[in-house]
Amino acid sequence: MSDAGLPPRGPGHPAWVRQQVRQAAAELGFGLVQQTKLVTAASELARNTLVHGGGGHVALTPLDTGQTRGLRLAFVDSGPGIRDLDQAMTDGYTSGGGLGLGMSGAKRLVHEFEVESRPGEGTTVTVTAWATAVPPSRPGS
Asked: Using CA atoms, how far apart are residues 58 and 117, in angstroms rounded to an integer?
């Protein structure tokens, strides 16, 4: 697992995240299309962490079920949090002048997507992508 700080300012950090995610995904056997989807989602979430959360960190965790490999990314900030998560996940909604496809678009590009946010305390967005197929769920999980 790698855990790296995202500077609170500076245009270089989304590029760094893209590079790290692409490298990790390639090492785990992701195909080019899968890599591109994950890198795109990671880029948007890193930008959100920087712009809306005031900076934070991202944790990259390689996964191996024995049948498939994956990569889990957790974007964590201590910013203002998301007041209305349903609204934030709606296509077309933007709080920063963008196209409004950030979080909802990122969700469509990965297999698993989870947001935990508390106003005034920050936000954690965790995404998981699998290199081949989503592992079957285990009974009782």
From this structure: 16
- Of residues 119 and 4, more confidence is placed in 119
Pair of tokens at residue 105: 């678009």
> pLDDT-based confidence at 15, cuts 50/70/90?
confident
Q: Could you tell me how many residues make up the chain?
A: 141
Q: DSSP characters for the chain?
A: -EEEEE-SS-THHHHHHHHHHHHHHHHTT--HHHHHHHHHHHHHHHHHHHHTTS-EEEEEEEEE-SS-EEEEEEEEE-SS--S-HHHHTSTT--SSSS-S-HHHHHHHTSSEEEEEEETTTEEEEEEEEESSSPPPPPTT-
pLDDT level of residue 99 (50, 70, 90 thresholds): very low
